[in-house]
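User: I'm writing a short methods note and want a consistent example. For Guanidinium exporter, I'll paste the sequence; you return only the structure tokens, no commentary, since I'll be parsing the reply automatically.
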Amino acid sequence: MNWLFLVVAGCLEIAWAIAMKYSEGFTKLVPSVLTVVLVIASMSLLSLSLKTLPVGLAYGVWTGIGTVGTAILGILLFGEPAGVARLCCMGLIVAGIAGLRILSAG
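Assistant:
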């Protein structure tokens, strides 16, 4: 169950980052409120996952999901660059998350 909390927390991190972009510096009410609600929900679920998961693993997975997911949505929604080097760097993040998970299993 704690892994589910962690994955959902990571997805909510993506959601709040995108909502913050749409808030235009917290000048638009609905995206601003949504950002705050999503941040609270994301951190609450991260906190629940930390009851049993190691902090280094959980935080790495949470930020990795958020980083890669937000970068992908930035490419798809906002036309941000998707160069080979950038995609390779995202792959390195995913590899790092996998490495943390594998090394924490023992």
